[in-house]
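Fold this sequence, please.
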Amino acid sequence: MSTNELTTKIRELKELQALIETAQAEAEAIKDDLKAYMIETGTDEVNVDIFKIRYAIVKSSRFDATAFKKNHGDLYAQYTRQTETRRFTVA
């Protein structure tokens, strides 16, 4: 690929990423409006037309790796492993 082709591809990528960010921000704003409505009406679930929206509390239990590492460092080290990945960035 030539330098000009690379430059064109990178510019196109940046434009598409900007569009995605704008669309995601708009989607989040709409979600926030829907959540606010549900909080105002005090409901966890709403049926509208063919859609069902839910905004409910979900409880979960998660392993606290930081506390475990602090209290059981040797055991933590025994069961951890390094991984290797590739990271793609355009600056």
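The two ends are 19 Å apart (CA to CA). The chain is about 55% helix and 10% strand.
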